Amino acid sequence: MKRIIIEGGYPLKGTISIGGAKNSAVALIPASLLAEGISKIDNIPNITDRDALFDIIKLLNCQIKQSGNTITIDTNNLKNTLINQELSVKLRASYYFMGVLLAKYKHVEIYFPGGCNIGNRPIDLHLKGFRALGAKITKRKHKYILDADELKGTTINLDFPSVGATINIMFAATLAKGTTIIKNAAKEVEIINIMEFLNKMGANIKGAGTDTITIEGVEKMHSTEFTVMPDRIEAGTYIMMGALLGDNLKIVGFNPHHNEALLNHLNDMGVKYELEDNAIIISKCEKLKPIDIKTLVYPGFPTDLGQPMSVLLTQAEGISHMEETIWENRVGHYPYLQKMGANIELDGLKATIKGKTELKGTEINATDLRGGAALILAGLIAKGTTTVYDIDYILRGYENIINKLSDVGAKIKIETI
Ligand code: UD1
User: Fold this and answer.
1) Are residues 211 and 253 in the same domain?
2) Within this chain, do residues 114 and 254 fall inside the same structural domain, yes or no?
3) How far apart are CA 332 and CA 399, in angstroms?
4) CB 3.0–4.6 Å: which of 38, 200, 332, 415 could bond 224 by disulfide?
């Protein structure tokens, strides 16, 4: 078991480099199986979700070579076999193998996907899309079996603009006959990055980043080279750390336009920063103003930044509100913030946060990936020592977080116990 130990109160000074986007990389790795040959992908983040996907790729008899953040995937000997429970439950994104293998083989057997405990996480919209394309889906105990004689393009209206369903349907439709139109598609920027990868592999997709995506099925796809876009959620997390502890903290290697919703809210709170094309320089804001925030689909305030933002709100002077609207259980970090001294009333998914309160170091548990990042932020500003347990959640999605923070002056270490 591992834990993170933080001595709070140290300023953050220097430069943090942002890695490749987790939410794009976890789709691009399975997507590479749509092609025959050897694909090369750069800027893959060093996170444990990546390793879980590698294990599935190897199970499917493909070869992975890794050198730093660059990987090559050789699909020449791909064998379409059952993706077992042990591997499938390790992460949510294992469901992307459904769309990919369905497109390529018209047959998939996979155990239910896993992932963070932030809600029920149904995949009915993914399945609805696969069915509309012509797949028959059988649910047997904890396993899905998908079969199709052929996949035929059609129009699919998503009841909710689900990121995963949009991407998975895009995968399934790449090699289908005719035209597929996804309406009410998710507009997250990672979907544009994934469309670009698929098109580079020979797919014919238009419209990612808007609510209508059109996929003309192609006969075959080929291997390619690609670079994962920067992680806007990782960048956003460090930006908020900078707003509380920065001393000209520079965060580089991301696109500030992707964080407009966050930056607009920080403006409202009185946070000052300087923007460059691919960077931000940010310092501690001495007097944060309270605000009201609701998490929304892109381009609204991202649910993945709601939990770290709630820590910022404990330091604002007055009453703030934070409402989670995407996930029905993304509030697990609040009891730990309360344990640290935060004044928070939780009513379902709505938190009323009264600041400013001094946080005190104590023993706390990460309950999910972004909630874990929020607790690290709380530990960094708290008085005394904070010990965070269950940190596997955090390592799933934040590349080298301990080194990145230590290098800019945080007193943070990881211990194996
Ligand atoms: C992705 C991101 C995650 C982010 C989320 C919302 C990845 C790997 N993860 O998750 O970090 O928090 O987008 O921005 O990209 N839903 C259904 N039926 C479905 C699918 C989803 O009801 O078939 C619901 C979910 O329960 C949830 C909402 O739709 O309430 C959003 O889910 P979705 O956009 O699919 O999120 P993910 O793709 O799982």
Assistant:
1) no
2) no
3) 22
4) 200
